[in-house]
Write a structure and sequence with these properties.
The complex is a heterodimer of chains A (140) and B (160).
Chain A lengths: L1 H29 L8 H4 L4 H18 L5 H31 L5 H34 L1
Helix pairs in contact in A: 3-4, 3-5, 4-5
Chain B lengths: L19 H21 L3 H11 L3 H23 L6 H32 L4 H37 L1
Helix pairs in contact in B: 1-5, 2-5, 3-4, 3-5, 4-5
The chains are: A mainly alpha (140), B mainly alpha (160).
């Protein structure tokens, strides 16, 4: 059971984080550029928050299709949506600050987006495992 | 009267500005622990939660755990930033986890009552899964939501 959920979350990590990073490296290689961005540099404007938002949308969709009681679905969906929005908001704030020339701290943006994305990923793991357990119970 | 010498004036410590990222790491670690317990103890861990709910301890345990965690988090942030904790935030952190846990306990009771009323097959197991899900969601809400409220209030205050 654990491997299944690790694969599920691993898919998001690969597609949302590693593929863009590898694409940036490949672009640099193709154009003969000296650019060698690290994951931290690539996502320094809070883009990890957007990856978190995508994960949250998929988990909410799975929740809506589950057989949990309405109260449980509503609570989990609202909580995930709030946390996902907060994760996405890091990128919005960073963009707005840079666009308007307001003071912007890349270190803080990276830290905020990384921590909130970590929260989204771990919460999604737990909710997916709860959904899996409930589906098995309902199928009996 | 002359002005006090600058050396004698006490330096003002800034007030603690809460950032969601601080609470996020704590809640993520809590989620990770919950995940590992579910994976490695898929029967005994849920049973402990359901038994404590049946005996009426669950809400109290959740309140104590979230209160301790919230206070620890706030004091840690204050210590790391050498900032001064404020009474208003302390009052919020003291009351909000309790309000959230009590509110969500009512929601859990209503979900369980509805499960029973539907007369579905495998009722006991369904009920246990509902309790397990609500316990996790209650834990996360009671730690994260107070920090979210404080953050929004601080932002609102700063804007005004």
């Amino acid at each position: 059971m654990s491997i299944k959920w690790l694969l599920w979350i691993g898919l998001y990590v690969v597609m949302g984080v590693l593929v863009p990073w590898a694409t940036a490296l490949s672009w640099a290689h193709q154009h003969g550029s000296e650019l060698r961005p690290r994951v931290r540099q690539l996502f320094k404007r809070g883009e990890l928050g957007l990856v978190g938002l995508v994960v949250v949308i998929s988990v909410i969709w799975n929740l809506l299709q589950s057989q949990f009681m309405q109260q449980t679905i509503a609570l989990a969906a609202v909580l995930l949506a709030v946390i996902g929005t907060m994760a996405g908001d890091v990128w919005i704030e960073s963009y707005s600050r840079q666009s308007t020339g307001t003071a912007w701290n890349s270190e803080r943006t990276w830290r905020d987006s990384r921590n909130l994305a970590f929260l989204v990923f771990t919460m999604s793991l737990v909710v997916e495992i709860l959904l899996d357990r409930f589906a098995k119970v309902a199928a009996l | 009267m002359s002005a006090p010498a600058p050396a004698l004036a006490k330096p003002q410590r800034p007030k603690v500005i809460v950032r969601l990222a601080d609470a996020a790491v704590a809640v993520a670690s809590l989620s990770l622990i919950f995940f590992l317990l579910l994976v490695f103890f898929p029967v005994s861990f849920p049973r402990i939660i359901v038994t404590s709910w049946q005996r009426g301890y669950l809400a109290v345990v959740l309140m104590v755990v979230t209160l301790v965690l919230d206070s620890f988090l706030y004091l840690r942030v204050a210590y790391l930033r050498s900032a001064k904790p404020t009474v208003l935030v302390a009052a919020c952190l003291g009351s909000l986890p309790i309000i959230v846990v009590v509110g969500l306990s009512f929601l859990m009771e209503s979900a369980v009552t509805q499960t029973i009323s539907l007369d579905l097959p495998n009722l006991q197991a369904r009920m246990n899964e509902e309790v397990l899900a609500h316990t996790y969601l209650g834990l996360v809400s009671a730690v994260f939501l107070p920090f979210l409220v404080i953050r929004l209030l601080q932002q609102f205050k700063a804007t005004r």
